[in-house]
């Protein structure tokens, strides 16, 4: 059993104490610059070592009309953090619940450290039982990717919606080419804003700058490899996502988030843990979404024990006066197998119903095959 081993690893043992922080009076422009320089996504706001909140990069980029002169005290978000005695499973839960890449470690409301996804992966990369896990049990199959002729604007929107740093790039035939990094996209977008309108270098015939020139090589793994290999690649190259490639075909990806989800399945729970991310909506909408999920999850529980359901919703806008197209990805972790599916449609509720139907069908087929 891995749970007792993981419960013994405490936040104080893996946290970073080399803290990058900001003050409540610091301006957003200065904070974003500091986050970019240190390659971090969450900036703790402290005053005399007392933790006040976080400035989250993803949240800031999604908020419109936010002045760069805004002070941290007006834009930070509250988060409970974790304690130094919390286990690595508690920290992984906190990262998933808040959709953060790093979480503050607090002692009597004072900031004493920060634990990131990377810190957790470093800690578990030496555990043999985790290293030996086949990547097919962890990876996200059929991942979203960007074509080499796509505009940098579309690529930036896709990678931002996924809340990732890297997205795979493919050619016209679907062959894997490499990855596109959000830092390179941000650099091109900033350069375009500052250049002369008459400068059309690097653009396609429609005037859009494409991602073709910024696709870069990436470490990859093949089907049949183990998770230890992927974690080693992440730590060596600093990649948040490792593509799984067979020949030239992109089979899937394993992200830091996938590993966090895996770890949370080792915790004993009563009932299934359901998390919906990516969508900014009223509480009434979330209540309806959870109601849609409830019945199929109940039927699934009669076939095998579900432990965690992760649903990520991306809404792609098609103009100011039209409803968005919803892309939904679901990952269901059970004690026996990890199931995943995706669905796209204009009706959010119907798309979620179809996604849950696909997951239930997968579970039923697997159950029937292995219980004959």
What is the CA-based Rg, rounded? 21 Å
Please state the second-level CATH architecture of the largest domain.
Answer: Roll
Strand residue percentage: 15-25%
Given the C-alpha coordinates, what overall shape results? globular
- Count of all domains: 3
- What is the CATH topology descriptor of the largest domain? CBS-domain
Number of strands: 15
Task: Identify low-pLDDT runs.
Answer: none
SSE layout:
Blueprint: H1 3-7, H2 11-14, H3 28-38, E1 42-47, E2 50-56, H4 57-62, H5 72-75, E3 82-83, H6 88-98, E4 102-107, E5 110-116, H7 117-124, H8 128-131, E6 140-141, E7 146-147, H9 152-162, E8 166-170, E9 176-181, H10 182-194, H11 227-237, E10 241-246, E11 249-255, H12 256-264, E12 273-277, H13 283-301, E13 306-316, E14 325-334, E15 338-345, H14 348-370
Parallel strand pairs: 3-4, 7-8, 12-13
Antiparallel strand pairs: 1-2, 4-5, 6-11, 8-9, 10-11, 13-14, 14-15
Defining key terms:
4-stranded mixed beta sheet; globular; alpha+beta; single chain; CBS-domain; 37% helix; 372 residues; Double Stranded RNA Binding Domain
Description:
This protein is α+β, with helices and mostly antiparallel strands. It folds into three domains: 3-124, CBS-domain (Roll); 132-194 and 202-256, CBS-domain (Roll), CATH 3.10.580.10; 269-370, Double Stranded RNA Binding Domain. Helix content is 37%, strand content 24%. Strands 12-13-14-15 form a four-stranded mixed sheet, with helices on both faces. Strands 3-4-5 form a three-stranded mixed sheet. Strand 7 (146-147), helix 9 (152-162) and strand 8 (166-170) form a beta-alpha-beta unit. Helix 6 packs across helix 12 and helix 7 crosses helix 12 (256-264). The radius of gyration is 21 Å and the shape is globular. The model has no long low-confidence stretch (mean pLDDT 89).
């Amino acid at each position: 059993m891995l749970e007792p081993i993981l419960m013994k690893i405490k936040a104080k043992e893996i946290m970073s104490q080399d803290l990058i922080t900001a003050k409540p009076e610091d301006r957003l422009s200065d904070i974003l610059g500091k986050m970019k320089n240190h390659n971090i996504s969450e900036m703790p706001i402290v005053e005399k070592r007392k933790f006040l909140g976080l400035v989250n990069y993803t949240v800031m980029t999604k908020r419109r009309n936010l002045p760069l002169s805004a002070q941290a005290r007006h834009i930070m978000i509250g988060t409970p953090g974790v304690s130094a005695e919390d286990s690595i499973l508690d920290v992984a839960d906190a990262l998933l619940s808040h959709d953060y890449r790093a979480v503050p470690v607090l002692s009597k409301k004072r900031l004493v450290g920060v634990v990131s996804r990377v810190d957790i992966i470093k800690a578990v990369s030496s555990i043999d039982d985790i290293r030996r896990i086949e990547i097919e049990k962890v990876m996200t199959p059929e991942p979203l990717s960007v074509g080499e002729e796509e505009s940098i604007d579309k690529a930036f929107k896709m990678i931002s919606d996924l809340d990732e740093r890297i997205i795979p790039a493919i050619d016209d035939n679907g062959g894997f080419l490499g990855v596109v990094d959000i830092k390179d996209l941000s650099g091109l977008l900033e350069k375009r804003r500052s250049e002369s309108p008459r400068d059309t270098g690097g653009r396609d015939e429609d005037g859009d700058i494409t991602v073709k020139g910024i696709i870069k090589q990436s470490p990859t793994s093949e089907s049949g490899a183990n998770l230890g290999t992927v974690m080693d690649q992440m730590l060596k190259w600093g990649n948040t996502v490792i593509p799984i490639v067979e020949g030239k075909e992109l089979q899937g990806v394993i992200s830091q988030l996938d590993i966090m989800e895996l770890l949370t399945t080792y915790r004993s729970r009563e009932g299934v843990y359901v998390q919906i991310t990516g969508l900014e909506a009223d509480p009434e909408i979330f209540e309806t979404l959870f109601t849609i999920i409830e019945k199929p999850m109940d039927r699934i529980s009669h076939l095998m024990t579900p432990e965690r359901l992760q649903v990520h919703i991306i809404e792609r806008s098609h103009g100011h006066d039209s409803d968005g197209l919803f892309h939904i990805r679901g990952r269901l972790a059970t004690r026996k197998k990890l199931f995943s599916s995706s669905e796209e449609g204009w009706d959010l509720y119907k798309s979620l119903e179809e996604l849950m139907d696909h997951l239930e069908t997968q579970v039923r087929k697997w159950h029937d095959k292995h219980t004959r």
